[in-house]
Amino acid sequence: PALLAATTSVDFHTHAAGAGHARAPRFDLADHMRRGRLTAVCLCHSADGPVIRRPPGGGRIRQYRDPAPGELQAHTQNRLAFMDAMVAQHGMTRVLTPDDLEAARVAGKPALIGTIEGGQFMEGRLGRLREVYDRGIRHLQLVHYMPSDLGDQQTEDARWGGLTPLGADVVRECNRLGIVVDVAHGTMALVQQAAAATSVPFVLSHTSLA
């Protein structure tokens, strides 16, 4: 217990408590974190969530329809409101800076790091990074299951040869703003090219070897 109390521990990728799609939290995440001595969670929704699914007969998760204009941006705004409610109504504090993370550990208050999985909410608009940053996002995964204009993911045939020019711009803008870049789900070429584009450390929160 003493070691856990003195250690800053972070779950780098979770959709816990219905963060991806539920209207209200499905359980008391803050209480679970206190009991598990977990400092913070990167609470995540998938930007492409409305248009991906596993086929009824099984197989890998894939895009099954095209999104309506603005649909995925609206989905992200909805999920950002879910995060706001977790902080305002469900006993969590928000991490916006490294100092916030340490303060949460010292105070014993479960912390939320706003995370988005996939850049589809941008719809090609780099300025939307600033918008989600202002709403508390500090962790962005570039690609997910829906094919992306930011680069190639592991579960579909490569289209771009790794990271696209827009994807590189996203990496650099995240660096400038203070958003941690996550290359999970990306191809090896995307990971290597993101490493060349970034000026600060990035993360690969979860993946499979390919």
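Next protein, fold it too.
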Amino acid sequence: MSFQLIGANDAFPPTWQADDDGLLCLSARLYPAQIQKAYQRGIFPWYNEGEPVQWWSPDPRFVLFTDEIKISKSMQQIMRKGDYIFRMNTSFDEVIRQCSLIKRTRQSGTWIHEEMIEAYRSLQRIGFVESAEIYRGEELLGGLYGVRLKNVFCGESMFRREPNMSKLALIHLVQNLHSEGISLVDCQIYSPHLESLGARKISRSAFEQYLL
């Protein structure tokens, strides 16, 4: 199957044109303005360094409703202990760098390479991208980053330096989003880790309704 190659100012194809894996189209470069347009339509970039930019819109979509998060008894104990601090947007550069260092199953490298880091860093400066962080004192123990839309937070990647710290950052983020009236966290594709927190699959068309 051949895929349309789009330019920086071209419109994305309709998402129903994505293949069975969710791959929709390609581009030669990654531009911040193009990333913004993509997320607003439920499309995200995911590709290896040296490859064309691959734009994805999977069906079904793996999501976490902010009022459905499951907090295990062990996580409740960690939260009651309270020997940590939750912060937003205080160490974005370190969070994305740490996420880029994570070894992924069946991957020899990382999809969070320099072109991706620079694009998301520029979007973080204008408030389109955010990080959530867990500290003990001034030590960053774990966190995540993602894209904030009007009704959806699109999670991108997580890291931890101690067990459960990325999960703790996600729990606090979800609770904050729920209090702000945001009902959905886009987890993009299935993972058992996120399923244990309550994430589930919905159709692409149902997901896109939250983007309106």
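About the second fold: The CA atoms of residues 4 and 25 lie 5 Å apart.
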